[in-house]
Design brief:
SIS_dom; Helicase, Ruva Protein, domain 3; alpha/beta; Reg_chr_condens; Rossmann fold; lyase; 297 residues; carbohydrate derivative binding; ether hydrolase activity
């Protein structure tokens, strides 16, 4: 079974990997990574469908769950964690579940990914409902942990998606929406942290970022909901205000502080010339969309 999967086949162009120079290895890996972009391009329609459905769930108060094992699980946890500071969302909104729990982020947990019931237990613990979206991630496309989680989610009435790196993947059968990015055999046979992992990371970037754009977390191409939790992000927040409004750094700094470090509020105040209260009202009435708030003024 495994030998039929593209992710498990030997790459004919790297049979002499152990004899290549460091430079030759780097060039070969770069060439192979280029195939990932083209493979993802073939799946844009499927990716779009997932994004639209994820966004609809989030708009209705649902949550997005990534479930996976090993590298796939780690990438889901990573994307979920990065959504919090980037888009200033509640950690509950996007969550990553990995077979074996937090320990599995750094140490392999024996047998966890082979369990058909563990994901159900994990999702029950998080209070999964029919309003949520569960995206199962598995490079091979056959991980029991993911299959079990998707089966439970569908039984509950939640929306489901599958992200794999092989065509006609097993997990696709258990989801309403399937993304299958097949970039071919790995440089190092079976090491799916390479091309498969890169493909998964890029697709997850697209899903979370595009969904957040649809939720009003972005103005133009600026991270207007960024959490200014450290000095670097405070400076970035002020520069975002500058970029969005064309004011000086000094003026951006003033409005940033005067708006309780709320970037969106500062931008709307500057662009509309209104008070804190009026700008806050505009944002609330327009579901947090800066552009609509400015146009509505």
């Amino acid at each position: 079974m495994l030998e039929k999967l593209a992710t498990e086949k030997r790459n004919e162009s790297t049979m002499n990997l152990d004899k290549l120079s460091v430079r030759e290895i780097a060039i070969k890996m770069n060439e192979e990574d280029g195939k990932v972009i083209q493979a993802i391009k073939q799946e844009i329609d499927a990716i779009e469908e997932v994004i639209v459905n994820v966004t609809n769930c989030l708009k209705k108060g649902g949550r997005l769950f990534y479930i996976g094992a090993g590298t796939s699980g780690r990438l889901g946890v990573l994307d979920a964690a990065e959504c919090v500071p980037t888009f200033n969302i509640n950690p509950e909104m996007v969550q990553g579940l990995i077979a074996g729990g937090q320990k599995a982020m750094t140490v392999a947990v024996e047998g966890a990914e082979d369990s058909l019931t563990l994901a159900e237990e994990d999702l029950k613990e998080r209070g999964l409902t029919e309003k949520d979206f569960v995206l199962g991630i598995a490079a091979s496309g056959r991980t029991p942990y993911v299959i079990g989680g998707l089966t439970f989610a569908r039984k509950l009435g939640a929306k489901t998606g599958a992200l794999s790196c092989n065509k006609q993947a097993e997990i696709s059968k258990y989801a309403e929406f399937a993304i299958e990015v097949e970039a071919g055999p790995e440089v190092l046979t079976g090491s799916t942290r390479l091309k498969a992992g890169t493909a998964q990371k890029l697709v997850l970037n697209m899903i979370s970022t595009a969904s957040m754009v649809q939720l009003g977390k972005v103005f133009q191409n600026l991270m207007v909901d960024v959490q200014p939790t450290n000095m670097k992000l405070v400076e970035r927040a002020k520069r975002i205000i500058m970029e969005a409004t064309g004011v000086s750094f000094e003026k951006a700094s003033f409005y940033f502080e005067d708006s309780q470090q709320h970037v969106k509020l500062a931008i709307v105040r500057i662009l509309t010339g209104t008070s804190n209260e009026e700008a806050a009202r505009l944002l609330e009435e327009n579901q947090g969309f800066v552009q609509k708030s400015v146009e509505d003024h």
